[in-house]
Amino acid sequence: AHPALVAECLALPDFDTLADAVAVVDPEALVVACERLVRSLAVTHREVLQARFDALRATARGGLDDAAMAARALRHAALAWLSRVDEGVAARGLWADAASMTERMAALRALWHSQAEGAAAAREAFATEFVDHALVTDKWLAVVATRPAAGALDDVEALVAGPFWHPTNPNRVRAIVGSLARLNPAAFHRGDGAGYRFVATQVQALDAINPQVAARLLGAFEGLPRWSETARGAALAALAPLRAAVVSRDVAELLGRLPA
C-alpha cells in the first residue's frame, strides 16, 4: 500500500469523532481508553513499526516529491506509536539525524509527548534557535500544549505566565490555549475540572482583547450536553464566573448556546 495511505490508517479516530458517536460520553474515561488502545497496538506491532521506520529513512530524506512526502508521513506516524514503547530511542535518533524542519519537529513531538530523555533539551533548542521566528515558535508551543497528559495543563499555565505569551496575537493564543482546549482532551477534560477552569478564565481575559478569538475558544465546550454528569457539572461550574461577568456579544452568543 502507498505509504501515505498507511500513515492515514495509523491515525485512529480522534476524541471528538468518538465522542460524537455516543449519546453520553465520559471524557476522562474515553481519553484513558484511547491511550490504552494505542499503547497496546504499539506494543503488539513494535517490530513492524521499527522496521518500517528504519526502511523509510533514505526515501524520507528526499525533497518535496510525492515519494519523499509519503515516506515522511508514514515514518513520523510510526514514530508517534514507537515513542510510547521505546523510551524515546527512535525519536532521539531522528533528532540527531534530522535533515529538515519537518523531521526535527516530528522528533520534538515524539520526545516531548512521551517525556523521554532529551525532550527538554530539544524543546530548549527550538526555543532558542527560533525565538525570532513567530510561526516556528507557534509550532513548538503547540507541541507542548498537545502533550497527551493531564500534566500538560501545568506546562501551558507556565507558558501563559512566561515570555512566550502574547495575548494580543491570535496565532499565539491559538497555539497555546486553543491547542490545549481543542486538541488535548487529556488536559482539557482533567478530572479535577482544572482544564475547564483554565480555558474559561482565559476566555474572560481575552474577551477584552479579541472577542472573536475568545468566543472561538468556547467552542471547546460545545459537546457539553453529551458529557457525563460529573464532567458536565465541572464544566458548568467553570463557566459560571464567565456567565456572571460583562462579556462581549460574541462570547455571550456562544454562552447562550450552552446549557446553564
Question: What would you say about this model in short?
Answer:
This protein is mainly alpha-helical. The chain has 17 helices and no strands.
Report on this structure.
- There is one protein chain.
- The protein is mainly α and 260 residues long.
- Helix content is 70%, strand content 0%.
- It contains 17 helices and no strands.
- The longest helix has 18 residues, at 27-44.
Summarize this structure as a short list of keywords or feature phrases.
70% helix, 260 residues, mainly alpha
Order of helices and strands: HHHHHHHHHHHHHHHHH
Strand runs, count: 0
* Poorly predicted regions: none
Radius of gyration: 19 Å
Report the total helices. Answer: 17
% residues in beta strands: under 5%
Instruction: State the secondary-structure class.
Output: mainly alpha
Protein topology:
Blueprint: H1 3-10, H2 15-20, H3 27-44, H4 46-55, H5 57-60, H6 66-82, H7 89-97, H8 101-114, H9 119-129, H10 134-145, H11 152-160, H12 170-183, H13 185-188, H14 194-207, H15 211-217, H16 229-244, H17 249-256
Helix pairs in contact: 1-6, 4-6, 6-8, 7-8, 8-9, 8-10, 10-12, 14-15, 14-16, 15-17
